[in-house]
């Protein structure tokens, strides 16, 4: 690459970082909230009145967002707006910005892990707000999520949920998905499981507040699940969690054990298509995933005893190797690409 081309690329990265910082500030101050609802083009005084923010700072932040081609301004450079057709994309981007902010907040923790005599890693739950962040990031559209992850490739699950089955989610976090399923399918029985006592307590409270009788939250060790669970569940579900496990193969094997004969295990995972850095060079989503993996996923895995540090960038081949060794015959495993950087494994016992 010529020096001039490299300089242009680096300038682009710096400007992109500036835009991300502006989006982060705009999200946290509430400035961007007025743009996320249907609106007519607004002047800076109008925006200031709606947000109760200072005009001078609004002007400068809008300058960054307009010159980054994120927010539009009219020909007179007086009124600002976000076109209807890009508003939903901007909204989902803000969720990613919030996740990036979390990674940035762990910068000092991550730096200490690099040191030879530093800690192996750290758990996400040690930072306040982590569970809420994941809930928001994972469930921007719960209806679409349920359709894509449960019914699109496995329509039999919907019929079974309506009739009544045993369903468990591992790594449920604050439980948005399984609580929603329990509310929709009262004939089925659900267990929301997580290693975090705080998460389990949160889910228990949420269940009580909703008055649901067909679901309970339970702390469980995914490396040694209760004997009474062996062969119990019709559906086992785990989302964006397998790569965070210190010993993912052991966890996957335990999940297969608690699955009934004829049951279905659904694994949703973040996936880079390439299996090494060279193969991922042209993937536009790779840089963000690598830094999030370094600051969230790898430390989560390595802080566990015997953790291998798989992370969310290990590639499809590595994930398949783990899942294929879990006890499900290879012929009974389907792989489906979902949204960008997301993959669904359907494993029938």
Description:
With about 350 residues, the protein is of the alpha/beta class. The protein folds into two domains: about 5-85, Orthogonal Bundle (Arc Repressor Mutant, subunit A); about 120-349, Rossmann fold (3-Layer(aba) Sandwich), CATH 3.40.50. Helix content is about 45%, strand content about 15%. The chain is built from 13 helices and nine strands. The strands form two sheets. A seven-stranded mixed beta sheet has the order 5-4-3-6-7-9-8. α1 packs antiparallel against α3. The chain is globular and about 70 Å long. The mean pLDDT is about 95.
Overall morphology? globular
Task: Evaluate the radius of gyration.
Answer: 22 Å
Helix content: 40-55%
Can you give the mean pLDDT? 94
The helix/strand series, from N terminus to C terminus, equals HHHEEHHHHHEHEHEEHEHHEE
Quickly describe the structure.
The chain is an alpha/beta fold and 349 residues long. It has helices at residues 3-29, 44-51, 55-67, 84-105, 107-114, 130-138, 142-151, 155-163, 176-184, 197-210, 248-257, 286-302, 316-324, and strands at residues 72-73, 80-81, 166-170, 189-194, 215-219, 233-239, 259-270, 333-337, 342-348.
Supply the key terms.
349 residues; two-stranded antiparallel sheet; 47% helix; 2 domains; Rossmann fold; seven-stranded mixed beta sheet; Arc Repressor Mutant, subunit A
List the helices and strands and how they pair.
Elements: H1 3-29, H2 44-51, H3 55-67, E1 72-73, E2 80-81, H4 84-105, H5 107-114, H6 130-138, H7 142-151, H8 155-163, E3 166-170, H9 176-184, E4 189-194, H10 197-210, E5 215-219, E6 233-239, H11 248-257, E7 259-270, H12 286-302, H13 316-324, E8 333-337, E9 342-348
Parallel strand pairs: 3-4, 3-6, 4-5, 6-7
Antiparallel strand pairs: 1-2, 7-9, 8-9
Helix pairs in contact: 1-3, 1-4, 4-6, 4-12
